[in-house]
Amino acid sequence: MNSNILIVVGLVVYVVILLWDGIRRLFKNNNAETYYTANRGIGNLALLATVAMSIFSGLSYYGYPSSIYKFGVGYLSGNGGYITALMFCTIGYRLWIQGKEYGFKSPAEYLRNRYYSEGYGFFVAALLFVFIIPYIATQVISIGTGMEVSTAGMISYGVAVGVACVVIAAHTLCGGMSSVAWMDTFHFFLGYGALALVIFFVTTSNFEGGLIKGLQQAYEITKSGAHSAVLSNPGPTGTYTVVGNINNALAGAIANLFWPHIFVRCFMAKNKKNFQVMACALPIFYALCFFMLAVVGAILAPALLGPDVVNTDTVMPLLSTQFAPKFVTFISILCLCAFAISTTDSFLLIGGQLAAEDIFVHWKYLKGEKIEDKKSVRLGQVAILFLMFAMLFIVFTRPASITDNAYKLSSPFFGMIMPATILGLYWPRASKEGAWAGTVSGLLVVVVFTFFVKPPLGISAFLWGLIVNFIVMIGVSLSTKVPEEIVEKYISNVSNIITTGNSCYDIVDSTVAKVIK
Most buried among 34, 240, 325, 446, by the most CB within 10 A? Predict the structure, then answer.
């Protein structure tokens, strides 16, 4: 039987598993708490897996080897997962406490309540929603490209992206966060295992001396000047600079916690221990994944493909199809699916939540209309369908102006809620006016330095946006007042829970009960 046919059969089985997992949970998701946060009951392994696989993506699996091949190992500065893990233990833990105390399920809901600003909540929800659409489209585009190259055109780009959109949307729409977290755990083992197998078989099939021999060949190519970036450290700007690598690390990883699909995972943890496990385990698996991707981009690709690959995004599929046994092609495709789908389904779910819960349902609430919890979930599912069709349009038309600019702005725009979140958690003086002024000014700086003016001092548009955002927010907050009840509720009470394990409101209630007795 033709090997490509076997690949198609294997992919059909994989699709059936995805759909089965979503459909079996369809009638269990009748309230928002279950559908969007899995009842805040995600355990240690599942939380680690769903965070890791939601950070990694199809862009990681194809993009990192491609970028390292093109720019050198300095591009690994984007691996800032260590800092992300520490932020989960500090920022993420405080968000989890507030989620448990006050029922928060999304970044827009937290920020709206922390700053007592309905307008700011709607603004944040709309901002995050807009840039979710083109970003998830880039994930599906990577699946379509990978399928077409890996199967030598047997599965066309159009068929691959069409099926991927429908399957991912159906799985997410039916299964909710419980299904997403379970499949992320499956994808966690699948992704890491498949990536390791691809490296093993490509290496053993082509180098008698193993990886050391491949390293020698890659070094010779670098030494000859044919491809000077490989094994050098120019980083993302093409010239090595400390600032350039800081820019890359900031955009590539440090801002990850503030991407909406990662932010919501702070509300899903089962208990405090989850965050302790994350602090130890996430840096290890982050480093392991990017080490393997670096091996592909810095050693295997230059040694086997040479220095002249024009479309560097095809480095990974070319290696798995031309320099390894055929079944490795299938393994590589599964690995791509694991990384791309685990990011896409998370983005779809938070997109539906932002549109339904944080915009439509809350708008109705302000008008005095009550939306039943079950209907709220159905509205979220309708929003996911909208996202699917919007995604289909982008992946089929592939308008460069949308996909390229969206990728430039996604992380910077998502990251502009960082100052309001951090200062809101720790600084009693952080005010509504400061949050508005900081966020808007940061966004304007990002747009100006991305499209109109070259950023000065070699600092990226994103980093300039954050600097201005923090400075403006602090300055405006110092000149405005914050209601005392906000400080007590979102600063003092959370600090009390962290230090004593008890809410100050619980202590008051207990004291009053004793007095009454």
Answer: 446
